[in-house]
Amino acid sequence: MTTTRTRFAVAVALTGALTLGTTALAASPALADSAGHHAQQSAHRIPFTAATVTQRADGTFTLTWAAPTARRVTVYAGTDRDAIRHRTAVARGTGSATVTVSGLAAADRWYFELVPDRGESLTVADRSLHLASAPNFRDAGGYRTADGRWVRMGEVYRSDDLSKLTDADLAKLQRLGIRQIFDLRTPAEQKTAPDRVPAGATVTSANVLGVEDTGAFNVTSPQAAVQAMIDAEKVMVSAASAKSAYRSVLRAADDRGAVLFHCTAGKDRTGWAGAALLTALGVPKATVEADYLASNDYRAAANAAILSHLPAPYQAVYKPLLDVRPEYLNSGYDEVTATYGTFDRYLKNGLGLDRQDLHRLQSNLLLG
């Protein structure tokens, strides 16, 4: 096969999500003191061990939950995450159940408060924002930590390219309270596809790669493409520009409004940001991996369209650049281990986050 020359941007822009592999650390030891102290207090405060919401194409919602210590769960729905209760119940079920909710009016986003007969309630929503212009735009929250707490939804979002957002999309994002956006792309990418930003939001250029453009490399085989992605992941851990970018993202997550971080495909540079955030919060590695790999689903149609425009011999070469795979994320975590020894030290010595930063992150983003 002839050598196919493409830009490194393809590797980090069209492939960018994170999956936690066998060498990854399950949770940050930096949180050990707090998590250990908090575990007994929080273990039964929120009794849900699983909870998901999926919005269907017909406008119905499928809710699935598990709360082993509860006998009954009542579901309330609302468009304001913090003011749902005292409405009419939209569903009821046992401690572990799957229900369908229909008849809700069109809205920017529906939140569902799951109220058990014992323990604290939990508010969840469909993770996807269902933006045709940005299919990988989704909530980074809604996950359970190893000590039984939950990452708040509606606080941190992750996405792919924002340049195609419609006016209706921008209005929706403004109403959802997005106040700060971190653009993880290079200046050349930002110039080629400038962000469209909701009113009131500020944009911070957080160039993970630290170069003007993404450069170029030769891809001659699927194996070479996989290796390029593995090598790129290491850069996201060790490059000074990457550490600065991710430090800014993690420090920005607070209670003053929602934060959004994105790159081009929302899976490589954005993927590592998501994995670092969730791991720092104590989310188990299997859950972090699932969040990372979800980019394959969200971008399935977009990736298929890209491949359909390539000659058949090149499709196998380019597919690894569009995928997210465990070995890509594993490479990042291997780099953490090789350079810092532990994820805790990566947070402290690599990203420069001290205990106060991590405590603030937990206080702002964790429930229970």
Write a brief caption for the model.
The chain is an alpha+beta fold. The protein is 39% helix and 20% strand.
Report on the architecture of this protein.
The chain has 368 residues and is an alpha+beta fold. The protein is 39% helix and 20% strand. The protein has 13 helices and 16 strands. Strands 9-11-15-12-13 form a 5-stranded mixed beta sheet, with helices on both faces. A 4-stranded antiparallel beta sheet has the order 5-4-7-8, with no helix packed on it. A hairpin with a 5-residue loop joins strand 7 and strand 8. Helix 5 packs parallel to helix 11. The N terminus is likely disordered.
Question: What general form does the structure show?
Answer: globular
Rg estimate, integer Å: 20 Å
Main beta sheet, described? 5 strands, mixed
Q: Strand percentage, roughly?
A: 15-25%
Global mean pLDDT: 88
**What is the number of E strands?**
16
